[in-house]
Amino acid sequence: MLKVNKLTDYAVVVLCDLLRGDRLRSAADLATSSGVPLPTVSKILKQLARTGILQSARGVNGGYGFARPPAGISMAEVIEALEGPIAVTGCVEESGECCEFVHQCPMSGHWNAVNVAIRKSLDEVRLIDMLPEARFMDPEDLTRVIAERHAAAMQA
Amino acid sequence: MLKVNKLTDYAVVVLCDLLRGDRLRSAADLATSSGVPLPTVSKILKQLARTGILQSARGVNGGYGFARPPAGISMAEVIEALEGPIAVTGCVEESGECCEFVHQCPMSGHWNAVNVAIRKSLDEVRLIDMLPEARFMDPEDLTRVIAERHAAAMQA
DNA sequence: CAGAAACTGTACTGTTTTAGTCCTGTTTGT
DNA sequence: ACAAACAGGACTAAAACAGTACAGTTTCTG
């Protein structure tokens, strides 16, 4: 049924929590406020930092924050950060792996139409649209509030 | 990585094979010409018949054919036939199942934006677009040829 | 400079899902 | 009556995933 894995699901919960703050947040802090177990939160944050969505600071008072303005982050990026390239089958160019019949396979390359279509639709859903308050707020207000929080977190 | 399962992958191979014929095809016949193992082909065809994409005829000279004009079948239908409703997480209305925190879950319902976006994009990719010859043929010619084959299969 | 807070990377294990197979039953044409 | 075909369900082996744990590195604070 075309599922994303649970880690990705949790990631959105944690990221939304992070969107609500205006400073760096430690993994332990986010675990407490989101209800997701610490080791899991930790795994997610590390991965998101590795792929450039978040940035991390070590040491006392360290933690995680967005590496760039959160309003510009799409769900496609979040999903790809945690699951790798969007590819509905193994038989696509980007995914490296290929079945043993690639060269004679009549389907070769055709699922790409599907991949591209999905990828495009996910590019158009922004992470901040996943925030519960997104449905009650004016989109411009939302974008501004998020940008202000991000600026505050960056200078702190 | 947002994969469809292998059965769905094979299903497209088998369906494309079926698109090339102008008569009912038995499971054994399709297995031979597509290279997919018979028990697997059989499983796929049964499921596709159950969900109304194909129709079956029993007995000697029986087999499978499209239940309606193939040009009208979308990839969304094929995927849903084999995997159930398109739902990237368990926490969505259509999927019945829900995590234990549904009522307090701040994400509840938000993945729906993603589901709807994906579903819409898959509605716009037609099964016949997956045919290898689709890229070399004029779309109208393709549609007509497919319709003629289907008509022939239905009256036979 | 010592210790605590926080991130980093990797490895392991139990559970769940998936893939693939097989068997028994029913329908239909010759 | 027999053989060709579909129908439905049950079972097993393999792969993927979720969750956890641990050993290491960096940085702030007193």
Assembly status: homodimer
Question: What is the radius of gyration of chain A computed over CA atoms, rounded to a whole number of angstroms?
Answer: 18 Å
Secondary structural class of chain A:
mainly alpha
Q: Under the CATH scheme, which architecture of the largest domain in chain A would be assigned?
A: Orthogonal Bundle
Into which percent range does the helicity of residues of chain A fall? 40-55%
Give a short synopsis of this structure.
By secondary structure, chain A is mainly α. Helices cover 47% and strands 5% of the residues of chain A.
Please outline the helices and strands.
Two copies of one chain form a homodimer.
Chain A: H1 6-19, H2 27-34, H3 38-50, E1 54-57, E2 63-66, H4 75-83, H5 111-123, H6 139-155
Helix pairs in contact in A: 1-2, 1-3, 1-4, 2-3
The structure holds a DNA duplex (30 and 30 nucleotides).
Question: What does this protein structure show overall?
Answer:
2 copies of one chain form a homodimer. With 156 residues, chain A is mainly α. Chain A has 2 domains: 100 residues, Arc Repressor Mutant, subunit A (Orthogonal Bundle); 52 residues, no CATH class. Chain A is 47% helix and 5% strand. The first copy, chain A, is globular and about 50 Å long. Chains A and B meet through helix 1, helix 4 and helix 5 of A and helix 1, helix 4 and helix 5 of B. Chain A binds a DNA duplex (30 and 30 nucleotides) through helix 3.
